[in-house]
Write a structure and sequence with these properties.
By secondary structure, the chain is α/β, with parallel strands linked by helices. It folds into two domains: 2-156, Rossmann fold (3-Layer(aba) Sandwich); 169-284, Rossmann fold (3-Layer(aba) Sandwich), CATH 3.40.50. It has 14 helices and eight strands.
């Protein structure tokens, strides 16, 4: 991956990078999110409050996968977590993967708004944001101020939800969470608690197949991205699973867009699925 990144930087420097990558950089020099949307959704929650935790949604969750985000927020509410949203902007980490540099102005805005809440922990719903916050020097101030950054799968690992499903479940490792951050077992520990009939796909953990969403692939090579997602869906179906869980809104988005009508497997973020199970249990009481 580092070789590919360096080649992309060289292509940027000589003016021959893919137009989609140049477009992403242009957007994040002018806008506060990768989609250049004007208004940040608040999901009927208050933002920029004092709280123990900040929940950082990420661009895909905020602007494209709102149902998954609503499920995650509902779950935090059910668990009585003292959290606040912030007036977040794109972490801009994606720019480094496509040959450009992270936008320091956007990073500064996020840091300022996180610090203002007094929170000691940031929970991210996006593996890419988690990776950016923990691995990029522009966000080193989080560590220096003693603020812990967790992906939501890490936060949920030791909690008890009091619900289970009898459906067969499989799990897709997001590249950013798995290969880039080494987070493999935390999601599985949670899934095994709610899904006794859990099965692995042929390729899993570090050998997991990419869904085709990340690294600029979806924006620059849409057909390849779709083909990669369908290959992954085929693997999920081959397990006999009825539910495909993952821990990344980009993966949910790409896999759902690639799903064919004849395919009956349902795709969820783990948080949204747990919330649905808890909602059903409460409704049945």
């Amino acid at each position: 991956p580092e070789i590919i990144k360096q080649v992309r930087k060289d292509m940027v420097n000589i003016g021959s990078c893919h137009p989609a990558f140049a477009g992403m950089n242009e957007v994040l020099q002018k806008a506060t999110n990768i989609y250049a949307e004007d208004e940040l959704p608040d999901f009927d929650r208050k933002r920029d409050q004092k709280a123990a935790y900040v929940y950082f949604i990420g661009c895909v969750g905020a602007y494209r996968e709102d149902e998954a985000t609503e499920g995650a927020l509902d779950l935090l509410d059910r668990l009585s977590v003292d959290y606040t949203l912030i007036s977040e902007v794109c972490c801009s980490g994606v720019l480094e993967d496509v040959g450009y540099s992270l936008n320091p102005k956007l990073a500064s805005q996020n840091l300022e708004r996180i610090f203002a809440t007094g929170a000691k922990t940031v929970i991210t719903g996006c593996p890419y944001c988690y990776r950016t916050f923990t691995q990029r020097q522009e966000y080193d101030e989080l560590r220096k101020r003693g603020i812990t950054v967790l992906h939501i799968s890490q936060f949920l690992r030791d909690l008890d939800f009091g619900v289970t499903t009898d459906k067969k479940v499989t799990y897709h490792d997001p590249c950013d969470l798995g290969r880039h951050c080494g987070i493999y077992e935390e999601p599985r520990a949670t899934i095994r608690k709610i899904a006794p009939d859990f099965v692995e796909m042929q390729h899993h953990h570090a050998d997991s197949l990419c869904c085709g969403a990340g690294g600029g692939v979806r924006g620059a090579y849409a057909k390849n991205s779709l083909a990669m997602a369908r290959r992954r869906l085929k693997e999920a179906e081959d397990t006999g699973a009825e539910i495909l869980l993952t821990e990344c809104n980009s993966c949910v988005h790409n896999l759902a867009n690639a799903k064919l009508r004849k395919q009956n497997i349902k795709i969820y973020n783990t948080t949204a699925f747990i919330n649905e199970l808890m909602h059903r249990k409460a409704k049945d009481k």
